[in-house]
# Entry
Amino acid sequence: MTVDYFPDYIGRQTVAYTAVASAAGLLFDFCITFDSEVRWTWGRKWGFTRIAFVLSRYLPFVSVSMMAYNTIEATNGRITNYWRLAIVYYSGVCIHSLGAFAAEALLVLRIYVFWGCDKKFLIVISVFSMVISVLFA
# Structure
């Protein structure tokens, strides 16, 4: 019986360590790019681009924290309420999806500007982005 349990525990522990390491990497990225963020985005008017940037920049902190909490609690066996843990997990998934959507919208906007603000190209790249998102979601 221990043979079946032990690999599962190691797998969950690896996932927990990976979640904490990704949170540390995200925090490191935030620290080294904060001065550029202040220079280029703070003090500017709020528009679609800034909203997409802020969502894609700060929502990963929330989702990674929720996923790390969920993984650590499941690994340590301190789960007292499975419904609460499921709510935390699915909320983290929704927040992560919203952040990914904002990052994708920001990428589409950057490509649009790079290609000379052509409206036809914007429509094509937007449709392509939506199709890929639906296919791989």
Remarks:
- Residues 56 and 99 are 5 Å apart (CA to CA).
- Residues 1-6 have pLDDT under 50 and may be disordered.
- The first helix runs from residue 2 to 40.
- The two ends are 37 Å apart (CA to CA).
